[in-house]
Description:
This protein is 79% helix and 0% strand. By secondary structure, it is mostly helical. The protein has 22 helices and no strands.
Amino acid sequence: xxxxxxxxxxxxxxxxxxxxxxxxxxxxxxxxxxxxxxxxxxxxxxxxxxxxxxxxxxxxxxxxxxxxxxxxxxxxxxxxxxxxxxxxxxxxxxxxxxxxxxxxxxxxxxxxxxxxxxxxxxxxxxxxxxxxxxxxxxxxxxxxxxxxxxxxxxxxxxxxxxxxxxxxxxxxxxxxxxxxxxxxxxxxxxxxxxxxxxxxxxxxxxxxxxxxxxxxxxxxxxxxxxxxxxxxxxxxxxxxxxxxxxxxxxxxxxxxxxxxxxxxxxxxxxxxxxxxxxxxxxxxxxxxxxxxxxxxxxxxxxxxxxxxxxxxxxxxxxxxxxxxxxxxxxxxxxxxxxxxxxxxxxxxxxxxxxxxxxxxxxxxxxxxxxxxxxxxxxxxxxxxxxxxxxxxxxxxxxxxxxxxxxxxxxxxxxxxxxxxxxxxxxxxxxxxxxxxxxxxxxxxxxxxxxxxxxxxxxxxxxxxxxxxxxxxxxxxxxxxxxxxxxxxxxxxxxxxxxxxxxxxxxxxxxxxxxxxxxxx
Length: 520
């Protein structure tokens, strides 16, 4: 037991160190941790760390999905609804069918139900892996948000198909209408449960003043939501997703400042450690795969055929759907050209869900050993190879974030914040007996910000206005706090609107939060 604990702590320490290494060599840290896990699995004397397959998803998936959902919004999911339908639903089903057919053909003794279950567990790209690989490369936000929208919603589709296929293996019956009804129930009940969990969590957070306790509550929410959804037969992934999107980092006004600053740092740290541990354990599971007692040479050819199909389906899909999306979609939300289509096709990484579902296959599944090896091969081909080769490919294709585009995303929000602050100042100036000097200096300070953003014509002396000091410090801070609150409320409203990039809104919101924190 102590040896297993040492391995787990070692993986967490290695994660922290490999993040720095990954930044230096421009490679994603989950891939480096996975390779470390593989190396440990091949080393004699390293203790086995085996987690019950039924516990892998409930332990690792809820916090990772919740953390990813906090960086998105319902408005963004709505804006990317075509991506959700075509990639998180239709593409997953197409991949399931193609992989199931291939598996049934190449692996002797596999039943149709087992082949469908294997197709379902290999179909959904991992949202955490894709984001971890794409984020350091400074890809355009439209690509990152497309990957986020796809990854956050595709697990639900795959898990429903997987559950029906496993049930067919155990019972010997399979019904498409029943599967469709199961999907509708699991999705609908999960979303309602997630919304209810978020409402309850927000109600409790409003009554807890201590920041540490508030962070602890947000940590409990994803696990409790997942377990509650599982108890009623709904999709735990969708329930956690709905709760994360609704609760997110959008707590209102003053109480939300510390939540976003400290809670954001808490969740970023937690997500990093859980991600590293999860991918390290994926690498360690190679030992269990090798001990499955299969002919490695024959099984490797079968796995190679399945990997070719998985990669080929995604590349073919993006080659067709990319041009179609550009003809009918919002140019700010879809890939701009074939080079970006290629990058999206390259980012179909499989990870934690694929391994957990493969290990959870019933012990009497036909050719279970070969299926485990094939699942591990899919993870290696779709995660390790792209993770190591995507940076040079991105540089060669010239697909990188446009600094002007990022500024264009934040500038309108900053202007809205500035206008809201000035509007609040005018309200206070009309209703309260504020000294004209205070009002004028505050008005000039925020007006100068709008001048710099290009929202108002500038004057020669606005820089001099910024250098002036306010004599009435206490009153100045009280009034400015009211203005910042108005600006923050405007950005919180904007963040929930379709088409507004949540990350851009969070950047403006963080500036306002830091401004409030600095005056505290």
